[in-house]
TrEMBL record:
The keyword Cell cycle does not apply. The chain crosses the membrane at residues 12-29, 49-82, 94-118, 138-157, 178-196, 202-221, 242-259, 279-297, 334-353, 365-388. Belongs to the CitM (TC 2.A.11) transporter family. GO terms for cellular component: plasma membrane. It is found in: Cell membrane. This is Putative membrane protein. Keywords: Cell membrane, Membrane, Transmembrane, Transmembrane helix, Transport. It comes from Herbinix luporum. InterPro entries: Arsenical_pump_ArsB, Cit_transptr-like_dom, Diverse_Ion_Transporter.
């Protein structure tokens, strides 16, 4: 690829959105608002079974708007604390929180890195994840999968009936980060109605990223004014996952290179040849291959690589592109739930358990993750086909 094109292949809107959101989430966690919300939920349930399910659902809801790993870091310690008070193992509840956060990450534009990648590649706005072309968007499909998967959790934890005492409510130190996070969501919704937002070379094409970075900087400046401590900047900047940012920037360049060389088109032709132009077969291949690959490799590089491939496939056979895009995300985001190493949130949850003295084996993890994942994938797989085929 010519050097002159390298910088242009990086989707800076995606990079700025992720960096800004990560920074705001750092302030949000520090404010202890997530812990307060979790405490209030726990006080509404009668026993351990419903506490685990409530925390898993809460993790899912939170994860629809902030990073999966951040969600696990917020919610899993609450589950560990409850387990200590009841003198029971926190393993099952932390696993449930991790897989639930992975599931809901694809529900909205800002819920997960792969959703942001899809939005940037396919030109989808925040609102398009709810309704697109007069049809239910990915949000409702993911929620249907979550509902089915929750029924699986009810069965898995049916014997956990120990009663739970009321929790003392966590004291929130600062409500401003909550305002920032809500502000990000609202401004992204408003920007969905601004014309020209899909032009990558225009300033409108960077608006989402500018929104997220601006609100992060507002939070950073406010905190510095309050603390008068230069360490504020260092701590805030540490909340951004630079590995992910650099990984994505590199991937954009690599994918730009293989697209320029014609490799994406050739891979797409192989998919079409294997499936014999059968749309249902191509769709099934995209979904279940994504489940398989994402069970063992991180879904960010996989989705980043496959988005242009499925886009080219849809162009070759003349099929609705959103059918394959949504199938890709359903398979890739949920497939990471199958194994302990399939998603960063799983690794984070097991790391928290390891610090508490619990080494979780793959079979133990998969007793919960496999039925949870397969039920959610099947539900999403069928719904995407019925709505978008």
């Amino acid at each position: 690829m010519p050097i002159s094109k390298v910088i242009a292949t990086v989707d800076w809107n995606v990079i700025f959105m992720i960096a800004g959101t990560m920074g705001i989430v750092g302030f949000f966690i520090e404010s202890k608002m997530p812990s307060l919300l979790a405490d209030q939920i726990i006080n509404l349930v009668p026993n351990v079974k419903w506490a685990i399910i409530a925390l898993a659902l809460f993790a899912g809801i939170i994860s629809a708007f902030i990073d999966n790993v951040a969600t696990v870091l917020m919610i899993a310690p609450v589950a560990v604390t409850i387990a200590k008070k009841l003198k029971i193992s926190p393993v099952n509840s932390v696993i449930a929180i991790a897989v639930s956060s992975n599931l809901q990450g694809a529900a909205t534009l800002v819920g997960d890195t792969v959703s942001i990648l899809l939005g940037g590649h396919a030109g989808l706005s925040f609102n398009d994840f709810f309704f697109l072309e007069g049809k239910p968007g990915l949000f409702w499909i993911v929620e249907a999968g979550a509902l089915v998967a929750t029924l699986v959790l009810v069965i898995v934890f049916r014997k956990e009936k120990d009663p739970i005492d009321k929790q003392e409510l966590t004291k929130v130190e600062d409500y401003f980060p909550t305002v920032l996070l809500v502000g990000v969501v609202l401004l992204l919704i408003i920007n969905s109605f601004i014309p020209g937002k899909y032009k990558p070379d225009a300033i409108e094409g960077l608006i989402n990223g500018i929104i997220c970075m601006t609100l992060f900087l507002i939070g950073l400046i406010r905190k510095f004014i309050k603390t008068k401590d230069t360490e504020t900047f260092i701590e805030a900047l540490k909340s951004i996952d630079y590995d992910t940012i650099l990984l994505l920037a590199g991937l954009f360049i690599v994918i730009g290179g293989i697209t320029e060389a014609g490799l994406v088109k050739e891979i797409s032709k192989i998919f079409v040849k294997v499936s014999g132009d059968n749309v249902f077969l191509i769709y099934s291949l995209v979904v279940w291959a994504s489940v398989l690959f994402s069970a063992f490799i991180d879904n960010i590089p996989y989705v980043a690589t496959m988005l242009p491939v499925v886009g080219e496939i849809s162009s070759i056979i003349g099929v609705e592109a959103n059918l394959l895009y949504f199938g890709l995300l359903i398979g890739a985001t949920l497939g990471g739930n199958i194994t302990p190493i399939g998603a960063s949130a799983n690794i984070t949850g097991l790391g928290i358990l390891r610090k508490e003295g619990y080494d979780v084996s793959a079979p133990t993890f998969m007793k919960i993750s496999v039925p949870f994942t397969l039920s959610a994938v099947v539900a999403g797989y069928l719904l995407v086909w019925l709505i978008w085929s």
